[in-house]
Amino acid sequence: MLWSDPENNPPKDMRDMQAKMRRAGFVLALAMVIAMFVLGLH
Fold it and tell me: Which of 2, 12, 18, 31 is most solvent-facing, going by the fewest CB within 10 Å?
C-alpha cells in the first residue's frame, strides 16, 4: 500500500469483484483437490 492511498474503503463494485475472485479461487482449489483424488483412484 502506498502512503497516498485512501483509507481502506474501496468502492462497492471493487469489493464485489474481490468477493467473486475469492469464491472463484476457492471453487478452483476445491475442483483441483477433487480432480487429484479422482485421478489418484484410477
Answer: 2
